[in-house]
Write a structure and sequence with these properties.
heterotetramer, B: 602 residues, N-terminal domain of TfIIb, Rossmann fold, 6-stranded mixed beta barrel, 18 helices, 26 strands, globular, C: 274 residues, alpha+beta, 6-stranded antiparallel sheet, 8 helices, 35% helix
Chain lengths: 267, 602, 274, 424
């Protein structure tokens, strides 16, 4: 009922924030191998796909899309676009809609967090997210007998009926924080904390860092002329910067174009 | 004053009402909700001491170095090892899920080794002249491979079979290459060692000649969409421009394109030509481009004990006369390049041959063998990994077990050695000692990321560190030599002639292995559309219509070797006249490289 | 929701929102409680009968709520504001004062062959009150009422010693599917009970000899005429033949003549019960 | 035999006939409860909703049903606050419709959420910035209010009122009904609005996003208006239906026409504002977010026709009909106009819920389609059947139309006149 004072509130958070973690993804390097998706699932105890799952019912905190330039034959070119929670920094669409504060922006890190244990499963946040980066547990998670031994102890598996999404591997952030504290440092130093997808990318296409640290790769990428963010015009200030030297690739940032009646069950 | 029951009730009621205004009851309900996170069926991850352990991935010939994050000794996630000279710390999607393979639902749990041994003994006894006992080794070059060869040398008419070595066993030196022409080779997607390829990528220009836009084509500097099956023609024209016109016809490229490409290859060398399965034309082109000694090099064999030298030669299946093998052992415990069962089957004797497969799942040859004996699977097994194709120097690394294999697993080499009446011994350590004796090369240890010359290391220390995650790299000392004969030997990898019966050419979209992947890989093809599920084919809607399966989700794939059910996906990006197939055991049984096929309604 | 809950912030938004919420809760709750308390009081003070009649009267069609002076033609149209209790009606008082006293011609009115003796006063619920010499009054059903019920299947009379109040329930009568309560014309204490066969149903010692709420003299004829119309209407509405059996003169047991009519509805209409 | 439960003097069909009437609905209800049960026990994987179509048939149902149920608060408001006495004839019926719609919507919502057992979280950790929080709070409160308003109707039942406590309580409660009417109006105003706000605030969905006054997007006010406009229409429609089915006259034409007039008036205002809002959105809001509005309608089947149908065909036309006394006086026109108005608002809710999710947001999205599973349809039918049943029972045993008896007598009188004239 009381809408947030959209401008001021996040900005205040921003000032308080110790760091604003962000990512840069070089689309000219992504081979679409899927290592990031798998590493993410392993890290965050996302179960194997249920037999009934489809590309629209599955849980893929980070998902690599194959996008083409719409041309045919020789003129056709494709690019692989990894899409994960864009960690919007200004009136984050999913935060304000959640009826019970299960979604929050961590002022210390700028990371948009999701608390499955408080989630009602109303899926309003999913309707609110323009990046389709939120996923609903349509089934109870299931692992083949014995495989639960390989679960990551730092992340609790989620039950059926709640929403989840990328949180930049919060477990890893926590671990890094503890290591830093053990080493007597108040802050995590650059490189001490990277999400699983970043670590697993064989071509180093995904880079991670603190946007407040001008030297960090995302901060540098943010200034690059060939960098862009998805649906920037919405004004939600995403913290994921994509990069490509190819002009047509940078078009994926824009709003969708009307259909051209192509038939493709894969997309 | 005296209390009535009413007072007490009032007191209790008041108390209850009051309690409702305190956080306590509500806190309880909240917690109840959080407890419900672990309602039945939701597993609790085990806790324990967190350690890092190292090994080498045995899931493909690349054998990348692996750092395993272990909780109380149990690996919960895998990652690459930064600074590794071979794999550069880059993992792949399949490798990242390796630690889950031991718990694969389709894992083979028990077999009947005794019966198998008896059957083998019987068969070997009545093995007549002209008949043979053979071992088919999918991953040649390992210590166990040598054991097999010794064993086959020990038995009369023993034969040691292996898939044809890519480039006849020669190695590729990408670091030297300035221009790479790939005729459908998945250079950036499963070919060679990912880390090594990506590291070298910046220094060469990649030209991908391939009918459809594969992952490699998408990232190549230039993609030449050629007609399906015209790779050979293109290679030929590039070697000898006179054939350019016909090549232009075959490939659908313009003559100019071809000639320009030819010039580029010669002008901006050193160049390298790779093809999906070594096309003689491609090899010849390499020869013409003077790749030998530059981008194509002969890699010295990893040292072996002299005692091993008396071993059976390595032969390809095609070289064995048909219906001549009475006893066949197939070792697929370590995934390697796959040979269609149809090709193997016709080599077996007619009257009940004995086929013993060593596998960790029933998905491979086990489906056809009389006996399938369960083996350990990575990361349970202990095996060395032969040098990768893109490693010019000889290497030696061991995939040391991170998890103890379950009981009643069979060790293929021990079994085969026993059948041949010899003792396998600890081949792995013997070879390590042989390497150490050679005193060449350096040892890179993963835990500390240090490289140490071999001569500064004691034999047992060498052996110890190999088992704790290390790799030995030979000094790359490769003298320039003339074009080796084995690279000119004709291959049976010619594209089958265009036929009306089988109009479609099969191209493999995913790595060509029959071995199972972790259930988690389902994320890649079920929860997203990034890769195709095993035994699935993508084809152009027109092709589908022509084949009378328009709109169908399932169909039957048919080749001259047989038929199997597949899923079909209409995709306009696949050119008409070809099938983009994701390998699966069933498909691999009937499809080799350049197989022609057709799809019919299920 | 409460200050100690997770995520409770002392912000304007929260204050306004929760404030509005709690206000609503309080209003709704207090309304309920208020209603409960009022009804408790009403029950304690025996308001039930008054309320029942108030409800019935309220539910009567406007045409049946006409003031008695409309019947006599003194008004063109007037709805009774006092639920037929003229004792508290100034208008009535004025009109009575101004009216000329009745000239009693013959001892009883004969309307369509029904006897309405003028020695008694009538309630619009078809009961009469007759003052007895011993200072009590007898209460009975008037001729139309009697014919409506004919030979009642059952009559539930109150116990002597009980009390009745004006427009409260005097007794219950059952006829065929009809189950009607007969409205009491007077306040008072029941002395004795008669019945259908006795000349009267109740003998009552009234609190006051005040019958201003009852019809008498010249008012009776127009009233009965009007009642006959209503009966006609009720009968035809309940699917009886359009005219009375014998050219308009109601028979002793009207119910018997209309076996198919919904007698409950007819009686409800005539005895003013919703 | 339920004779003594039925209001005196009104005609109701025989018990057997009534049984025949409710039987199919009961069957439908049981089937629906079964499918809803499946969704609760096995989880929402029983539905065809997915991560991209996170909302489906049910949310559409909720929004529509609640809009139609607005008749309860609005009629109450007109009768008790603005003292429009004619509406006394339909208020009870309106209240029952309200109860049915709101309770039905609540049930559907309970099935729709992934963790129904946590419904109370919304009250316990409310995020006051969320439109959904506000909706949840208001709908819950308002349903309570409706139940309380429904109480007197029940207790007034001929048999129940014989119990003095019931009689007295409902009498006293009814005296205070205007308070509840006031509260109900307040609550409805906000949750009807917030239901609109629900989509208006979705900055990430430029198709639904709207600018507005202060903290409320324009849809907030449009929903209030449209609900208030269509509520009376729906009351009118149901009343007409009940008259047809029960073959009785229940309400005076004046009352019907008054409902129609009110509906038409508000509808006209709504259509006007909706048009303005749409123009602002097409020319300013949407392009401002980088989404040229034209492209939304390039995804078939959702062409511009849907916009035209919603605003002109099912908005302006019925408004004009209802505002023309001549046409309004003709039941045929009146009822069909009301029906059109209801469809128009239903279509509007459909566009808000379904089309919003169907049109892609990322350049590489595909146009989304979705067909509800039988379990979803079943649950939908359950709500429908539940509504019909509750209404049928209420109509049979409670006095939904106070004028019924009177109208019955009037009819008789008309037939009677000649006879009477002949006799005096």
């Amino acid at each position: 009922m009381i809408a947030p004072n959209s401008k001021s509130q996040p900005s205040r958070e921003r000032q308080r924030a110790v760091s604003r973690y962000g990512m840069s993804i070089d689309l000219d390097r992504c081979t679409g191998c899927g290592a990031c998706m798998v590493a993410c699932a392993v890290e965050n105890n996302v179960p194997p796909a249920h037999e009934g799952a489809t590309a629209r019912k599955g849980i893929t905190w980070i998902r690599v899309f194959k996008v083409d330039n719409g041309e045919e034959g020789a003129a056709r070119r494709s690019v692989f676009v990894p899409v994960l929670c864009q960690q919007c920094g200004e009136d984050t669409p999913c935060v304000h809609v959640c009826p019970q504060q299960a979604v929050e922006v961590d002022p210390a890190t700028g990371i948009v967090g999701q608390m499955p244990e408080r989630c009602l499963g109303c899926r309003y946040c999913m309707a609110a997210c323009p990046y389709h980066a939120r996923f609903f547990n349509w089934w109870d998670p299931q692992w083949p007998a014995g495989m639960e031994k390989t679960l990551n102890p730092d992340v609790a598996p989620r039950m059926r009926g709640v929403v989840e999404k990328c949180n930049f591997c919060h477990g890893r952030w926590h671990a890094a924080k503890e290591r830093a504290a053990a080493a007597g440092k108040s802050e995590i130093e650059a490189g001490a904390y990277v999400p699983a997808c970043v670590e697993s990318c064989p071509t180093g296409a995904i880079r991670f860092g603190d946007l407040k640290d001008a030297a960090s790769e995302p901060a540098v990428a943010a200034k690059d002329a060939h960098s862009f963010r998805l649906l920037e015009k919405l004004g939600t200030e995403p913290k994921i910067y994509y990069h490509s030297k190819r002009d047509w690739v940078r078009q994926v940032a824009a709003a969708p174009k009307p259909p051209n009646g192509k038939e493709n069950a894969r997309g | 004053m005296q209390r009535t029951r009413r007072d007490i009730l009032l007191f209790m009621g008041g108390g209850a009402a009051g309690a409702m205004l305190t956080p306590a009851p509500w806190r309880l309900v909240t917690d109840a909700a959080i407890w419900s996170e672990n309602w039945p069926g939701i597993p609790r991850p085990a806790r324990g001491e967190i350690t890092a352990r190292y090994t080498n991935c045995a899931l493909c010939p690349a054998g990348c170095a692996v750092r395993a994050r272990c909780v109380a000794g149990q690996p919960v996630s895998l990652a690459g090892v930064a600074g590794n000279p071979l794999s550069q710390g880059a993992p792949c999607a399949f490798g990242l899920t390796g630690h889950q393979l031991p718990y694969h639902p389709q894992r083979l749990k028990q077999g009947t080794p005794e019966e198998a041994a008896a059957a083998v003994r019987g068969a070997m006894a009545k093995c007549g002249p002209g008949e043979s006992v053979a071992v088919l080794d999918l991953a040649p070059g390992r210590a166990s491979s040598w054991t097999y060869r010794r064993a086959m040398a020990a038995v009369a008419n023993g034969v040691y079979l292996a898939p044809p070595r890519p480039l006849g066993g020669a190695a590729v030196n990408l670091a030297k290459a300035r221009t790479v022409l790939s005729l459908g080779a998945p250079v950036l997607d499963g070919w060679g060692t990912p880390g090594n390829v990506h590291a070298a990528r910046a220094n060469f220009r990649l030209i991908q000649a391939e009918p459809w836009e594969s992952r490699t084509a998408a990232l190549a500097d230039e993609w030449l969409p050629i007609r399906p099956g015209s790779e050979a023609a293109l290679a030929l024209a590039l070697k000898d421009p006179k054939t350019a016109p016909s090549a232009a016809q075959a490939t659908g490229l313009t003559e100019k394109q071809i000639l320009d490409l030819a010039n580029e290859l010669t002008a901006s060398g050193p160049a390298l030509v790779l093809s999906a399965d070594d096309l003689p034309e491609a090899l010849a082109l390499n020869q013409a481009l003077g790749a030998w000694g530059q981008t194509l090099v002969a890699r010295p064999e990893v040292p072996v004990p002299d005692a091993w030298k008396k071993a059976a030669p390595e032969r390809v299946v095609a070289s064995v006369p048909d219906s001549s093998i009475r006893v066949l052992f197939i070792d697929e415990s370590v995934p390697g390049s796959h040979i269609p069962w149809s090709a193997v089957e016709k080599k077996l004797v007619r009257d009940n041959p004995v086929v013993v497969a060593f596998a960790w799942s029933l998905e491979g040859y086990g489906r056809h063998a009389q006996f399938t004996l369960p083996t350990a699977v990575y990361p349970e097994l202990t095996s060395d990994i032969p040098p990768a194709i893109d490693s010019p120097a000889a290497t030696f690394r061991i995939s040391a077990p991170l998890v103890a294999p379950p009981a009643r697993m069979t060790d293929p080499s021990a079994f085969i050695a026993k059948a041949a009446g010899m003792d396998a011994g600890n081949a792995l350590q013997e070879r390590a000692d042989a390497i150490h004796k050679s005193g060449r090369g350096t040892l890179f240890t993963y835990a500390d990321g240090k490289s140490t010359p071999l001569k500064d290391i004691k034999p047992d220390a060498f052996w110890k560190s190999l088992n704790e995650g290390a790799c030995w790299v030979d000094d790359a000392a490769v003298g320039r030599a003339s074009w080796p004969a084995f690279l000119s030997s004709p291959h049976d990898t010619q594209a089958e002639p265009q036929s009306t019966a089988f109009p479609l050419l099969v191209a493999f979209a995913e790595p060509r292995t029959a071995s199972l992947t972790s259930p988690l890989m389902s994320k890649l093809y079920q929860d997203s559309d990034l890769r195709m599920a095993p035994n699935t084919a993508a084809l152009h809607p027109d092709t589908a219509r022509a084949s009378g399966i328009a709109g169908a989700a399932r169909a039957v794939l048919e080749t001259q070797y047989g038929r199997c059910a597949i899923g079909v996906i209409p995709d306009e990006s696949v050119p008409p006249g070809m099938l983009e197939v994701a390998a699966g055991p069933e498909v691999l049984d009937i499809c080799g490289a350049f197989t022609r096929a057709k799809v019919v309604a299920a | 929701m409460l200050p100690w809950n997770y995520g409770f912030h002392w912000t304007a938004g929260t204050m306004i929102f929760m404030g509005a919420f709690y206000t609503v809760v309080v209003i709704v709750a207090s309304t309920l409680v208020n209603a409960a308390l009022r009804s408790r009081r009403a029950l304690r003070t025996q308001q039930t009968e008054r309320i029942r009649w108030a409800e019935d009267f309220h539910d009567l069609p406007a045409r049946d709520r006409q003031c008695r002076h409309v019947l006599t033609g003194e008004f063109g149209y007037r709805e009774c504001p006092h639920a037929f209790d003229c004792r508290q009606c100034e208008t009535h008082a004025k009109l009575v004062a101004s009216a000329a006293p009745d000239r009693i011609s013959e001892p009883e009115e004969d309307i369509f062959g029904m006897a309405f003796p003028l020695d008694r006063v009538y309630h619009r619920g078809h009961t009469w009150v007759h003052s007895e010499p011993d200072g009590t009054v007898t209460v009975g059903l008037d001729d139309l009422g009697r014919r409506l019920l004919g030979e009642p299947d059952r009559v539930d009379l109150p116990q002597p010693g009980g009390r009745v109040s004006v427009n409260g329930t005097a007794w219950h009568a059952h006829k065929r599917n009809a189950d009607v309560r007969i409205l009491s014309p007077v306040d008072g204490e029941i002395v004795a009970t008669g019945g259908p066969d006795a000349p009267w149903y109740l003998r009552i010692r009234p609190d006051r000899m005040d019958f201003r709420n009852l019809l008498g003299g010249h008012e009776i004829r127009p009233w009965v005429m009007r009642e006959m119309e209503r009966l006609q209407l009720a009968l035809s509405a309940e699917g009886a033949a359009p005219t009375l059996a014998d050219g308009g003169v109601p028979v002793q047991d009207i119910a018997a003549v209309y076996p198919q009519a919904d007698w409950d509805a007819v009686c409800g209409e005539m005895f003013l019960e919703a | 035999m339920d004779r003594e439960f039925i209001t005196r003097g009104v005609k109701r069909c025989s018990g057997g006939k009534f049984l025949l009437w409710i039987l199919p609905w009961v069957a439908m209800l049981i089937f629906g409860l079964y499918s809803a049960g499946l969704c609760l026990v096995k989880g929402l994987n029983q539905t065809n909703m997915d991560n991209r179509f996170a909302f489906g048939l049910w949310i559409f149902l909720d929004l529509t049903v609640i809009a139609l149920g607005a008749g309860a608060f609005f009629t109450g408001f007109l009768l008790y606050i603005l003292k429009m006495k004619e509406l006394r004839a339909v208020i009870n019926s309106a209240v029952v419709i309200g109860v049915v719609c709101y309770s039905g919507a609540m049930c559907a919502l309970a099935v729709d959420v992934g963790q129904p057992l946590r419904f109370w979280f919304t009250f316990w950790y409310p995020n006051v910035h969320s439109m959904l929080t506000e909706v949840t709070f208001c709908i819950t409160c308002y349903l309570t209010v409706l139940m309380i308003e429904y109480l007197p109707i029940v207790l007034k039942n001929r048999k129940l009122r014989d119990v003095p406590e019931f009689l007295v309580f409902q009498h006293e409660l009814h005296k205070l009904i205007y308070v509840l009417a006031g509260v109900g109006t307040f609550l409805s105003f906000f949750h009807q609005g917030s239901l609109g706000g629900l989509y208006g605030v979705l900055r990430g969905r430029p198709f639904a996003f709207r600018e507005g006054l202060a903290i409320w997007p324009s849809t907030f006010f449009l929903f209030i208006l449209s609900a208030a406009a269509v509520g009376p229409s729906f009351v009118l429609l149901t009343t007409w239906l009940v008259e047809k089915i029960s073959k009785k006259r229940l309400v005076r034409p004046e009352a019907m026409q008054m409902l129609g007039r009110i509906s038409g008036l508000l509808l006209a205002v709504y259509v006007l504002l909706k048009t303005i809002d749409t123009l602002v959105w097409i020319n300013r809001t949407s392009p401002g977010n980088g989404f040229p509005a034209a492209q939304y309608y390039a995804w078939h089947p959702f062409g511009t026709w849907i916009l035209f149908t919603e605003i002109a065909l099912l908005g302006m036309v019925p408004a004009l009909i209802l505002l023309t006394p001549k046409l309004r006086a003709r039941t045929g026109w009146l009822v069909s106009a009301a029906a059109m108005a209801c469809c128009g608002v239903a279509l509007n809710r459909f566009v808000q819920t379904v089309q919003t999710l169907a049109v892609p947001t990322l350049s590489f999205d595909k146009f989304m389609t979705y067909t509800p599973s039988w379990q979803e349809v079943g649950t939908f039918l359950a709500v429908l059947a539940y509504g019909v049943l509750v209404y049928s029972f209420s109509f049979r045993y409670f006095q939904l139309f106070p004028d019924e008896r009177e109208l019955k007598l009037e009819v008789a009188q008309v037939e009677e006149e000649p006879a009477l004239v002949g006799r005096y």
